[in-house]
Design goal:
It comes from Streptomyces cinnamoneus (Streptoverticillium cinnamoneum). With 196 residues, the chain is of the alpha+beta class. It contains 6 helices and 8 strands, in the order E-E-H-H-H-E-E-E-H-E-H-E-E-H. It has one domain: Gcn5-related N-acetyltransferase (GNAT) (Aminopeptidase), CATH 3.40.630.30.
């Protein structure tokens, strides 16, 4: 299995697979209340078999090239997830999503992990448009979309039902040429900053 370093703090991005269902379930349980504010994860993953089924669904997406799921590990513990919820290579469109346990918030892990996943989608799979959806009340997710250089395209009013409430959802996106230009500008700025 491969691991992608997320920086000097030792955090890593790795694929999540069905054999990791027990570790994934423990992660979901630790973050259930925090993550569940805006995601129906607690209704989908509640025991070992549902955890395994969830990871199997993403193994199937990986096998059919329609999605991926990656875990974020910090200090040897699974603390977050970045996933490609859907991917249509023919159309060149993918949707990226994420969540994080409370213990890992504020360290830039989601932004770094999402950059890695988007880089892969754009450069390896030829995705032209990467989308990001977040409830308007989910200010942390919206802040990540901004840090990723995405553009807000609009609000889908009351489009997401969750536990008896309907949430407005914001749609954000970045196009491959914009992504590449921003990455090139960041690389140039990093080189300039390292020069005496």
């Amino acid at each position: 299995m491969y691991a992608i370093s997320l920086g000097d703090d030792g955090a890593e991005l790795r694929p999540l697979e069905p054999w990791q269902a027990e570790e994934f379930l423990a992660h979901v349980r630790r973050g259930r209340d925090f993550v569940g504010r805006f995601l129906p994860l607690s209704e989908v993953v509640w025991d070992l078999e549902s955890s395994r089924a969830y990871l199997r669904s993403y193994a199937q997406k990986a096998a059919t090239d329609t999605g991926r799921i990656h875990g974020i590990w910090a200090d040897g513990q699974l603390v977050g997830v970045v996933l490609i919820r859907s991917m249509d290579v023919g159309q060149g469109v993918a949707e990226v999503g994420c969540w994080l346990e409370p213990s890992a918030v504020g360290k830039g892990l989601i932004t770094r992990a999402a950059r890695s996943v988007i880089d892969w989608a754009v450069e390896q799979r030829g995705i032209h448009r990467v989308e990001w959806q977040a409830a308007t009340a989910n200010t942390a997710s919206i802040a990540v979309a901004r840090r990723l250089g995405m553009t807000k395209e609009g609000v889908q009013r009351e489009s997401f039902p969750l536990r008896g409430e309907r949430y407005d959802m914001e749609l954000w996106s970045v196009l491959a040429p914009e992504w590449r230009a921003a990455r090139a500008a960041a690389a140039t700025a990093a080189v300039a900053a390292s020069m005496p």
